[in-house]
């Protein structure tokens, strides 16, 4: 939903009489350094609506932390184009970029209002109740697990689903939405907030398999041992030398190879959701779209009408349940930058469970989900032996 | 959409005055051997509608090829319950099970009408124009690639997406739907109908990366070398001798490790769509649902009103384009069993392309897709050097 926020920013800037022109930097900070801007002042509303529902940054993205020299160059470019409002969309790394830039601007006395606009499927920003992008990615995870639960029930075995989240288990925890009956999976959920112990894991898998006749497992890509070493990085099964987490099936395949040792002929499989969960076309939470759009509007409101010269937009909830009211506030960028908000302790049960109260948190963000239905299942009496 | 066909069968049997009771075998042939049946005669319509939209076999599944003794036992069970109509839903392995069973029934003079009802996401059944299940899985693949194309565009690199299809490239070819602009991916599509040569592959990837500044690649899990050896190997096989391919990230990771040799610092990732493409909750083609339901109706019609004592239901198209009319016919089971219909030659371009005419075939099955929208992208003139 990142483009919902972009369109929210553009719309609100178009509507403000304080804004004379709207530029979009091509690839974030890199585009500013290259003086590579799109003029967004004349985008047509219909086109913007199309952009808003297209996944992944329409202005394209970058992984770059600016140096002090970079910041000097940015201010020079801003000066040349008389840029006086600046909005940077992204997660805690993007907030850090905004923070670094803001520090230099303040030190140099460059007059600018600079805001971080939150977006991360990881949901790991501090201060805010939740992050735009999370509800839609969590919806993907919930629907995937709901379907996979049916698949695992139809053709029983042990199935591992590896879900994004290096440092925080928010997205993996959303798999809990698929469990609407006691027998439904995921039967085990592993998040990076807990130390992952392979022996305990194998014991838990064996127990669940005995209990349910099958076992569906959700695992964060970021699970690690007591020393903080990623399980995915272990030399044991790093078959192809890949070190990154997403975009590799290494962790899933490693867990499968361990689980297979539990017994001959066990049907064990792994899927790694990878980039699908952050980019799949059309799987979005309606509320997430609305909030992402509104976060853009709010950022412009804070910038053009508020007192604060800089900040990070945060969302708070008023009321509970499916129809809470979101409230948009401002936090200091330094409170949000770099650091990670991990999954709250109160949501985690033991080593491998997410408690029901988490559903109150996540369900409104994800929106209504379909229901799986069983046959009424009256057994026919046997007539033979 | 397998449960659409199941519900179609149940509905049509309920409506037929030739049918006195409706049993569902729990886990296919295994349930018959175990005399393990559900009585489906009194399922409520509302519940059936819920079952119809729930993914994966509601009666649960099995991979089992019956022996002659098994078939004798099946007939004994059928006799005990006076089973005179039999419908078996599935792909070419299920058709083979139906064929084996039918041969024994005919030899023994057991009076039964026995039909294979097609369902496979692989779309690889002979005779039929297309298979129920394919349109919905192809829709998943198209939406995944459309999103991944945006992701790959936003943060450029080389991305490999591994798609189901051991012997036939139908599902992988559906990735072609994501390519609505010349610059869109997938830029390269590899299907098992072509020999996969690693050196040619790496050369093609390098060329595409030079041309587009990024490269999105769709690969069938079943790609193999000139000797027919799978590029991804697994020791595990099922009862029909099929090697396990899905549920592992091995092929994707192997291709990534090869591609990384093309240059230091290349951003190379792989995702393996795995079981998501056949079980994801809610991603279905409307037409596929309707046809899957109707295939069930047609099977009962053939069984109770037709002359043929056995057969496999096939779908043919009348007319072209998005609004063709499906026609339901009967083929001999032996024409459908075991064998595979590979992707037609006329749809394949060179070693790694799917031609535009394939879209005429696949687009109606998948249904309308969303559109990605670009900013109008007017560059701002530079003011600095």
Write the layout of secondary structure elements.
2 copies of one chain form a homodimer.
Chain A: H1 2-15, E1 23-25, H2 28-33, E2 37-39, H3 45-52, H4 68-81, E3 85-90, H5 92-108, E4 113-118, H6 134-154, E5 158-163, H7 170-173, E6 188-190, H8 198-212, E7 215-220, H9 250-260, E8 268-272, H10 276-279, H11 286-305, E9 310-318, E10 325-331, H12 333-336, E11 348-349, E12 353-354, H13 357-366, E13 378-379
Parallel strand pairs in A: 3-4, 4-9, 5-7, 5-8, 6-7
Antiparallel strand pairs in A: 1-2, 9-10, 11-12
Helix pairs in contact in A: 1-3, 1-11, 4-5, 6-13
Write a brief structural summary.
Chain A has 13 helices and 13 strands.
End-to-end span of chain A in angstroms? Answer: 60 Å
Instruction: Give helix and strand order of chain A, one letter per element, not per position.
Output: HEHEHHEHEHEHEHEHEHHEEHEEHE
Alpha plus pi helix count of chain A: 13
Greatest interface (CB-CB under 8 A), with counts per chain: A-B, 83 and 81 residues
Estimated share of beta-strand residues of chain A: 15-25%
Physical arrangement of strands within the biggest beta sheet of chain A? 3-4-9-10
DSSP helix fraction of chain A: 25-40%
Radius of gyration computed on alpha carbons of chain A:
23 Å
The 3D shape of chain A can be described as elongated
**Helix/strand structural class of chain A:** alpha/beta
- Mean pLDDT across the residues of chain A is 95
Main beta sheet of chain A: 4 strands, mixed
Model regions low in confidence, pLDDT < 50 over at least 5 residues of chain A: 234-243
- Classify the oligomer: homodimer
Total strands of chain A: the figure is 13
């Amino acid at each position: 939903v990142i483009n919902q926020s972009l369109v929210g920013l553009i719309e609100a800037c178009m509507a403000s009489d304080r804004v004379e022109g709207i530029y979009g930097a091509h690839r974030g900070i890199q585009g500013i350094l290259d003086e590579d801007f799109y003029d967004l002042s004349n985008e047509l509303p219909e086109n913007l609506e199309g952009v808003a529902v297209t996944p992944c940054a329409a202005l394209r993205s970058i992984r770059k932390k600016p140096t002090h020299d970079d910041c000097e160059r940015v201010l020079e470019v801003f000066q040349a184009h008389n840029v006086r409002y600046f909005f940077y969309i992204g997660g805690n790394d993007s907030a850090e970029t905004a923070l670094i830039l803001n520090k230099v601007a303040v030190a140099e006395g460059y007059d600018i209002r600079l805001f971080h606009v939150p977006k991360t499927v990881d949901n790991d920003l501090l201060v805010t109740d939740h992050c735009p992008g999370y509800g839609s990615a969590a919806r993907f995870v919930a629907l995937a697990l709901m379907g996979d639960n049916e698949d695992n029930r139809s053709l029983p075995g042990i199935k591992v689903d590896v879900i994004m989240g290096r440092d925080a288990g928010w997205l993996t925890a959303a798999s809990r939405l698929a469990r609407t009956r006691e027998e439904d999976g995921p039967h085990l959920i592993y998040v990076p907030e807990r130390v992952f112990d392979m022996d305990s894991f194998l014991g838990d898998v064996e127990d669940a398999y005995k209990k349910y006749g099958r076992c569906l497992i959700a695992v964060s890509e970021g699970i690690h041992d007591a020393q903080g070493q990623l399980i995915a990085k272990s030399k044991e099964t790093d078959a192809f030398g890949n070190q990154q987490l997403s975009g590799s099936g290494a962790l899933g395949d490693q867990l499968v190879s361990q689980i297979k040792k539990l017994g001959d002929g066990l049907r064990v499989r792994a899927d790694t959701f990878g980039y699908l969960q952050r980019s799949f076309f059309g799987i979005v939470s309606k509320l997430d779209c609305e909030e992402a759009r509104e976060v853009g509007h709010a950022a412009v409101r804070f910038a053009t009408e508020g007192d604060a010269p800089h900040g990070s937009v945060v969302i708070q909830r008023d009321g509970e349940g499916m129809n809470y009211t979101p409230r948009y506030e401002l936090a200091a960028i330094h409170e949000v930058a770099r650091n990670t908000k991990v999954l709250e302790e109160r949501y985690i049960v033991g080593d491998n469970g997410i408690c029901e109260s988490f559903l109150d948190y996540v369900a409104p963000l994800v929106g209504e989900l379909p229901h799986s239905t069983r046959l009424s299942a009256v057994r026919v009496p046997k007539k033979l032996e």
